[in-house]
């Protein structure tokens, strides 16, 4: 790291050192080389292109698919004294003209644009003039996984971004994403024309996130119990969080229900008016304790660091999407929880989506592989984090911070029950769903059972020694293992697959996870400022709250989210260090000269008042 780099790192961003691979990435980009960066959410991706843009001559062009993210980052950069702007569809004619003049006259360090705008002939003409005059420092392609045609965030316009190399040869490019399985990684290199680029892969592990999966029973009651007890017996009421649902209607219903339960909950989905969606985003970004109930339309690019939980009330369609969505929790490094309720109906619904997608056979096959991986995670009897990281080709040991580590499931020999379920499916013509098969096994003479004379079958009543709930767990796990396949075209009728043959013929044993009660809440680990909070004296806690109040007032005055002023971690450092001068303030990590000048007097006055 050169002295210039370290000086800019501290004086602009307020940091005294890099994290992980940041230094190597910055060095390579400053040297004019191409890079592909895979770094988890909260790992510091933005610095990897923001800092080189300040160190190289010319303006750095940042390609981002999300207007909200552009606004967030430009606001934060301007507070650091960086000359940043965005050029997108929300800009007025006057703002667009001002931005054009600024970039053409070399007055910008960073310019954020959408991929659609980057390749417009008129915009390319502006960039060509800039390249000939002040120069272009770099092209940063954020959310690079949007190039993947297999992913749920696919953006067709990303496929053309490789064209910028032909227009501006010699300008370094850096593609960044927090989410990329092996298939997506290959696409990023190939489709963005980055085959010769250096790949930087940071650990995908987010150790501060606890992963918990529950058998879906009464979804709303389960969600409320989770919110009321968190993962350590403490309520999550008043904390920021996201609840993901599959349908727009469901987001509206659950948001309304949570409001009735006293939570500040708002819906978000693609069917809402643009103004309503924008208002929901602004509330979530700028206010404390807001819970957004959303479809997957919400989240990519959300930069809020203090999201304490992400809940899924429906099964995501892939581990890649699940990782990305849960990664929106705990960006500040503090303890957070990813909770999910999952049931067999979710599998039927996802299979129905795949079959009805209209995609090519190859596309449906990949989607099915992704769903199978998701099912394997949901039905895990071993460490969930190991399974999640292995999906991204990263090996790890047991984490000690997921439900299966904290409350290891009991395994039992379910060979005979599995044979009974499979036999019942075959004897009923593989035309019925789990509920009917379980009624047959339990010996229930329902109208449907009697209508089909299934009370006359040899399998009728042979499973009366196993509870309804346990049978549902057996069926679900057999589906996850590919021995039973629900047919969405026939309302989820369970079909016996070739994988079940060894079990039916008695040549293979089946070990399954025994159904459990909801996970007992265990005290969550404390990290960084979380440790400071747990060890704080009443006086320190009171000071922290006063600092938070001041931060909110300063943020409101500037029209920015509170975390843009200072994160909680830095507030706790202020509590611990009690700086008495500007020089002392600059020793606090996260406070550089620009923020010290802008906010230092107010924070120092408050600290002096409590000395």
From TrEMBL:
Residues 219-372 form the Helicase C-terminal domain. Keywords: ATP-binding, DNA damage, DNA recombination, DNA repair, DNA-binding, Helicase, Hydrolase, Isomerase, Metal-binding, Nucleotide-binding, Zinc. The gene is recQ. One of its GO terms (molecular function) is helicase activity. It catalyses: Couples ATP hydrolysis with the unwinding of duplex DNA by translocating in the 3'-5' direction. This is DNA helicase RecQ. Belongs to the helicase family. RecQ subfamily. Its cofactor is Zn(2+); Mg(2+). Residues 26-198 form the Helicase ATP-binding domain. It comes from the Bacteria. Residues 537-611 form the HRDC domain. Transmembrane segments: none annotated. Its EC number is 5.6.2.4. The keyword DNA-binding applies. It is an enzyme of class 5 (isomerase). It comes from Longivirga aurantiaca.
């Amino acid at each position: 790291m050169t002295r210039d780099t370290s000086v800019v790192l501290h004086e602009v961003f307020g940091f005294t050192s890099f994290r992980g691979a940041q230094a190597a990435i910055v060095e390579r980009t400053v040297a004019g080389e191409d890079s592909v960066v895979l770094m988890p959410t909260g790992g510091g991706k933005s610095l990897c292109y923001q800092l080189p843009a300040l160190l190289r001559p010319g303006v750095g062009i940042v390609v981002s698919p999300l207007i909200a993210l552009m606004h967030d980052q430009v606001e934060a950069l301007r507070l650091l004294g960086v000359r940043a702007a965005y050029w997108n569809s929300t800009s007025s004619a006057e703002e667009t003209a001002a931005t054009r003049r600024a970039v053409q006259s070399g007055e910008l360090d960073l310019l954020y644009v959408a991929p659609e705008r980057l390749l417009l002939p008129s915009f390319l003409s502006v960039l060509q003039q800039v390249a000939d005059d002040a120069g272009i420092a770099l092209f940063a392609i954020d959310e690079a996984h949007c190039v993947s045609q297999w992913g749920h965030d696919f953006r067709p316009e990303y496929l053309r971004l490789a064209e910028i190399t032909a227009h501006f040869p010699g300008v370094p490019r850096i593609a960044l994403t927090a989410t990329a399985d092996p298939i997506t990684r290959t696409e990023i290199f190939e489709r963005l024309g980055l085959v010769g680029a250096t790949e930087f892969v940071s650990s995908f592990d987010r150790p501060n996130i606890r992963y918990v999966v529950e058998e879906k029973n009464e979804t709303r009651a389960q969600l409320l119990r989770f919110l009321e007890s968190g993962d350590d017996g403490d309520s999550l009421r008043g904390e920021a969080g996201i609840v993901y649902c599959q349908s727009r209607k469901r987001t509206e219903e659950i948001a309304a229900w949570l409001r009735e339960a006293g939570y500040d909950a708002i819906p978000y989905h693609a069917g809402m008016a643009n103004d309503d969606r924008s208002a929901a985003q602004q509330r979530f970004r700028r206010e404390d304790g807001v819970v957004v109930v959303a479809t997957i339309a919400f989240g990519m690019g959300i930069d809020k660091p203090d999201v304490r939980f992400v809940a899924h009330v429906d099964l995501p369609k892939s581990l890649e999407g699940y990782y990305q969505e849960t990664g929106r929790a705990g960006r500040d490094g503090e303890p957070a929880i990813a909770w999910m309720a999952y049931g067999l109906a979710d599998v039927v619904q996802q299979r129905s989506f795949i079959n009805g997608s209209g995609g090519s056979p190859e596309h449906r096959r990949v989607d099915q592989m992704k769903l199978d991986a998701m099912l394997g995670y949901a039905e895990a009897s071993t460490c969930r984090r190991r399974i999640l990281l292995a999906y991204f080709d990263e090996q790890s040991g047991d984490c000690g911070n997921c439900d299966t580590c904290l409350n290891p499931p009991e395994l039992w020999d379910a060979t005979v029950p599995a044979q009974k379920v499979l036999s019942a499916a075959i004897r009923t013509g593989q035309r019925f769903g789990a509920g009917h098969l379980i009624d047959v096994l339990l010996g229930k003479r329902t109208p449907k059972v009697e209508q089909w004379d299934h009370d006359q079958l040899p399998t009728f009543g042979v499973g009366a020694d196993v509870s309804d709930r346990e049978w549902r767990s057996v069926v679900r796990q057999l589906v996850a293992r590919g021995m039973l396949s629900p047919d969405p075209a026939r309302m989820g009728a369970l079909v016996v697959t070739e994988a079940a043959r060894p079990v039916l013929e008695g040549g293979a044993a089946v070990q399954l996870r025994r159904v459990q009660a909801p996970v007992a809440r265990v005290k969550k680990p404390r990290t960084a400022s979380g440790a400071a909070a747990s060890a704080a004296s009443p006086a320190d806690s009171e000071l922290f709250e006063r600092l938070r109040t001041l931060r909110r007032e300063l943020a409101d005055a500037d029209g920015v989210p509170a975390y843009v002023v200072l994160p909680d971690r830095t507030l706790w450092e202020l509590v611990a260090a009690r700086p008495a001068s500007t020089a002392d303030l600059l020793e606090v990590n996260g406070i550089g000269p620009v923020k010290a000048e802008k906010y230092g007097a107010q924070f120092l006055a408050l600290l002096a008042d409590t000395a």
